[in-house]
Specification:
The chain is mainly alpha-helical and about 160 residues long. The chain is about 65% helix and about 0% strand. Helix 2 packs across helix 9, helix 6 packs across helix 7 and helix 8 packs across helix 9. The N and C termini lie far apart (about 50 Å).
Length: about 160
């Protein structure tokens, strides 16, 4: 009986904690209490992974100012200067993911059309934009794939 109660308490705690973990904070950045430059015994591969995660949610201007390698990747994907391409996105991860979607699905109008749909007046999610431009594509899977590609790009360029 005690084990059952313990299991139920754990399930309820996880159910209430999940939305907190899913929330995204504008600007990203390091976790609270993290002092930039402190190693505290964490391996460098973990540091690179953490940097990529915080970069993913960082503003384009902030990320591009300290990660110039990603600018070349964005230029290759979009054909535009990285600041121009990503300036209207809330974070760099969204910009890179949109660039990958435009390229992966050969979106009519390219990156600029997709960018207008996800950042312009009446903006929609990347998934909804995919549904509009490529109705036969699995929008959820394509958005997930593009977000993974964006994360990989940031990891690759931050190491």
């Amino acid at each position: 009986m005690k084990r059952f109660i313990l299991c139920m308490v754990t399930v309820v705690a996880l159910a209430f904690a999940a939305p907190a973990f899913a929330q995204r904070h504008p600007g990203g950045g390091p976790p609270a209490g993290h002092v930039p430059g402190s190693n505290s015994g964490v391996s460098s591969s973990h540091d690179a992974s953490s940097a990529a995660r915080s970069d993913m949610h960082g503003s384009p201007t902030d990320v591009l100012s300290h990660n110039t390698a990603i600018a070349g990747k964005i230029k290759t994907l979009t054909g535009e200067d990285a600041q121009t391409a990503c300036g209207t996105f809330r974070n760099i991860g969204q910009c890179i993911a949109a660039a990958h979607v435009a390229k992966n699905l050969d979106i009519p109008g390219g990156f600029d059309a997709l960018k207008a749909k996800v950042t312009g007046t009446g903006a929609v999610s990347l998934g909804k934009a995919i549904e509009g431009f490529a109705p036969n594509a699995d929008a959820k899977a394509e958005a997930k794939k593009a977000n993974k590609q964006a994360s990989d790009d940031l990891k690759e360029t931050s190491s």
